[in-house]
Design goal:
Helices cover 33% and strands 23% of the residues. With 361 residues, it is of the alpha+beta class. The strands form six sheets. The protein has a six-stranded mixed beta sheet, sandwiched between helices. Strands 7-10-11 form a three-stranded antiparallel beta sheet. A three-stranded antiparallel beta sheet has the order 8-9-12, with helices on one face. Strand 13 and strand 14 form a beta hairpin.
């Protein structure tokens, strides 16, 4: 089996090396942990350098030396700036066209490597990185399965958390704590808990609003496990909601089924979105689906697969993507149903699980 650095370089046509430079917060690149197969450590100031022959040099400070030795690559431990510079020059010796991940690297880090290595030409390795990390290996799939198992347990418990008068912040905190209790190593992203009229805002952050009878209760959340993310949304109701939201829920449920039916290796990514969007736009809720059907998921909650109406991408076995249609009615409420899906040769496997039926608490 090819190593991850070998896979990256096979996608990096014309590049002599790819440098992943962690320049401290907020410029920490998940690609570093992908290549080194590390699950812990901060690795600020560290570099992972993949070269044309598939070898991987991992340049770290003495602070991270012990952690680094447990991962992949040839570990080079520096004790001062001069030693770090020497390792960079030696690693990039003979390399001219060197790629960087422009989506996450700082300008200062690129300039530092360019000045230190001398004579290199800087190129964008972003697409090569996205093409590589978007196809998951068995180790990555196993970690994602566990993240999905954890969040699925919490999804099933949500109706038990709800009662009249609880706040969005209270339930979000309970969900976050529960995911940790179940073995999660962190949140995939900040948990969204949106009650009543706030549920029509797709990215609402929990506030002090307290749940009332007839309110929608929408939760978008995910756990991490060994740095891999899950992503799911569950929408339930405290007491009978307005009939328009009952109708919207059924349309969203059908739209998700239509979109997921288009998920398979070799399919156009846009087809899933278009299938779901047709269900919604053929209903009374035309124009109320205001985001794309899905996105790639990995160590980052959003990776470089766009399941949108105009996406030119082709899905491949090993991609992990979300399936999340929604209907949003300002002033009344919103509905979203979301699962994490693994693309296979035959179709897809839904990795998250919860009851999709209309649920009144």
């Amino acid at each position: 089996m090819e190593s991850r650095s070998e896979r990256l370089m096979s996608n990096s046509d014309g590049l002599d090396a790819v440098v992943i430079a962690n320049d401290g917060e907020p410029f920490l690149d998940s690609t570093f942990w992908y290549l080194t197969e590390q699950t812990s450590g901060t690795f600020e100031g560290s570099l992972a350098i993949a070269k044309r022959d598939g070898s991987l040099d991992v340049i770290v400070s003495v602070l991270e030396a012990e952690s680094a030795e447990s991962g992949a690559g040839n570990v080079l431990v520096y004790h001062d700036r001069e030693e770090k510079n020497r390792f960079i020059r030696e690693s990039l010796s003979g390399c001219r066209n060197v790629g960087f991940n422009i989506h996450s690297v700082s300008y200062a880090a690129v300039e530092y490597v360019k000045k230190t290595a001398e004579g290199i030409t800087v190129s964008d390795a972003g697409k090569a990185i996205e093409d590589t990390v978007s196809v998951k290996d068995e180790k990555e799939i196993a970690a994602t399965r566990e993240a999905c198992r954890i969040s699925s347990v919490v999804a099933g418990e949500i109706p038990d958390y709800l009662s009249e008068g609880v706040s969005e912040k209270e339930i979000a905190a309970k969900m976050d704590n529960r995911m940790r209790e179940l073995g999660g190593t962190g949140n995939a992203f900040d948990t969204i808990a949106a009650f009543g009229p706030y549920s029509s805002q797709p990215h609402h952050m929990p506030c002090g609003y307290r749940l009332k009878k007839g309110d929608t209760a929408l939760f978008d959340f995910g756990s991490k496990y060994d740095r891999y993310c899950s992503d799911m949304t569950r929408t339930v109701f405290l007491g009978k909601p307005p009939e328009i939201l009952e109708r919207a829920y059924e349309i969203v449920r059908k739209a998700q089924e239509a979109g997921i039916s288009e998920y398979r290796s070799g399919a156009k990514a846009c087809d899933a979105d278009l299938a779901a969007r047709k269900i919604i736009d053929d209903s009374e809720f035309k124009g109320k689906f205001i985001h794309s059907f899905g996105h790639g998921i990995g160590m980052d909650i959003h990776q470089g697969i766009s399941v949108s109406p105009a996406s030119p991408q082709i899905l491949r076995a090993g991609n992990i993507v979300s399936a999340e249609p929604g209907i949003y009615i300002p002033g009344i409420g919103g509905i979203r149903i979301e699962d994490t899906c693994l693309i296979t040769e035959e179709g897809c496997e839904i990795l998250t699980s919860f009851d999709h039926s209309f649920t009144v608490v």
